[in-house]
Write a structure and sequence with these properties.
Largest sheet: 3 strands, antiparallel
Radius of gyration: 13 Å
Strand content: 15-25%
Strand order of the largest sheet: 1-2-3
Mean pLDDT: 96
CATH architecture: Alpha-Beta Complex
Number of domains: 1
Bound molecules: FE2/S2 (inorganic) cluster
Length: 122
Amino acid sequence: MSYTKEVMDHFSNPRNMGEIENADGIGEVGNPTCGDMMKITIKVKDDCIEDIKFKTLGCGAAIATSSILTELAIGKNLDDAYAISRNDVAEALGGLPPEKMHCSNLAADGLQEAIKNYRSNN
Ligand code: FES
């Protein structure tokens, strides 16, 4: 299985890349097997994700999954954003090759860590 056009689009034109200054929540995750790393920063307003950015040092699928994750999460309340699963991420990209599913895990985990971090600070 090769990459879908959605994966190629988000890999070539990543959305919401970067880092929010004075973020309300920060999530940093890594995959020890492949060495890829991801940092998610969020701004929270009225219990909703007002803004979200990512920095990913990793494979093309990790970049595409981070990018789509930011689009899925923005505007959602924290409970709904926390519930975004790796399958939601992969589905939004029209599917991922099986050996690349762990890359979508990284994105969902990164957001959950950022939300946990926000909640522990508030
Ligand atoms: Fe590890 Fe993609 S190869 S996140």
